[in-house]
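**Sequence, structure tokens**
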Amino acid sequence: MYVGLSLAVFFLLLILGVPIVFSVGVSVITIWLQNPQIVTNPTYTFQAMTTSLDSFVLVAVPLFIFSGQIMAKGGIADKLFGFFSYFTGKSRSGLPITVIITCLFYGAISGSGPATAAAVGAMAIPVLTNLGYDLTFSASLIAVAGGLGVIIPPSIPMIMYGTATGASVGSLFIAGILPGFLIAACMIIYSIYYCRKNPPDMKKLEEQQQNLHSIGFLSNLKQSFLALLSPVIILGGIYSGIFTPTEAACISVVYALLVSLLAYRTLKISDIPHLMKESLDSIAPVLIIIGVSSVFGRALSLLNVTSDISSFIINNFPGKVAILLFINFLLLIIGCVMDTTPAILIFAPIFWPICESLGMDIVHFGIIMVVNLAVGFVTPPVGINLFVTSSITDVPVMKLAKKATPFIISFIIALLMITFIPAISLSL
């Protein structure tokens, strides 16, 4: 009963547009107001928020955010896009495919979906529209492809999942590689189909390719080599055991600064304070959300809500397939109305015990959860990637969402394959 009213308050506040931090915080205190003997009073809430942030693993989150800001300002996405464009030739779908591959590689550097959409979108959308690709298609493509930024490691949501469930962050990073490539492949298939029906300006496309090839492969490789090396250093160090994910985040900041300041010279030392301020503007809300969501999760555990929900789902859905489909459906809905970080911290401890009882691997479920919530980046009303690309193009969010629907369907097809074929996540 306590939890029912608390959840009702939580969703009501969300519907009314109250910020997620206050919605979660008020719902936690609501439990205490109903029964003062339950330890979720304001004093406990603030103490638990503080202790939940005292984690070495969580240090990686602000560092990856700062690294992403540096790389966006340093033009590393431009270098990646230029390199992959060299190989697309005169194919009608060549540049959309290049965008998807660029998002894959940029995601392997930034660890953030919105950061990937912002960096690649600001650079690629003018190029695509200049070559005759539809503006709405270009923006929706980048909004959905930006979601690859949280699936391809390193990934901030995977760090959140590891914090919430105790799963190995390094194992989650490894497990995200093949699912990321599978989703990209599904998106590429639709891009090829779309571009056959809606070709760009082929004359401009040929000119663009001639300009690229006039530079030469070696020159192109030389210009983009350090950008291409970024994910190799970050992921190679993690997988080889040289450093932890948190240390990798620190190294990514140092590497991004060195490349942007000394090699590409796209960044000035005077730009760093401004980038730090922008990063803090992003980091502070994330950390507050982590703290208050952790308290909410503790309250649910204290009241045995996780076991009650587990029993309800297991007793009312026949078989493993039905349960997994239902959990996927719930996660897709949750992703529509809630940001990734609080969604993982609140619901991972609820859904994981259910999947554990079905014999599922904790890393496999982590990938399923992150992929589900990545769809939420492009589904209203939250849909943060839609707002990012809308701000770049001035195309209304709902118009972008409609155009993004086929890409979302391809995303969900890949999600179902990932759910029911564990080897996609676990084979590496």
